[in-house]
Write a structure and sequence with these properties.
The chain is α+β, with helices and mostly antiparallel strands and about 140 residues long. The chain has an eight-stranded mixed β-sheet with strand order 2-3-4-1-5-8-7-6, with helices on one face. The longest helix is centred in the first third of the chain and has 11 residues. It has one domain: 2,3-Dihydroxybiphenyl 1,2-Dioxygenase, domain 1. Strand 7 and strand 8 form a beta hairpin.
Length: about 140
Amino acid sequence: MEDRPSTANTMRYSHTSITVRSIDDSLRFYTEVLGLEPAGRRRIEENRAEIAFVRDPSTGARIELTHWDGKDRIEPGEQLDHIAFEVQDLDAVLARAKERGARVGKEPYRLQGRTSRIAFLIDPDEVWIELIEPAHAPA
């Protein structure tokens, strides 16, 4: 396994995103039934979606609940939207992934009004992997 890239100081698990029929119903389930804490909610107009995060207060693990406008029916297997990792250098991680034959789903971009950059890889089973490069503090 000598060829395996080190993730030390380069990649950190961020969250898992699932597609939901109703943000409100899902928030109630994850907070009232499972005891997770609400951790933010917002619209993403350019994606025609609304997202909300919940987090486990003991581990900090987060789930992103995503409702796509007009998508009220979810077929089996469509619930998992993506898995996300924070990276320190998005360009370097993408370059290494491309060298190793990874498929890029979306090249780096910024959501409107945000300073972090994101990109997506697609794994061999068509699962989307979001890579997030947080905004760096000014030097």
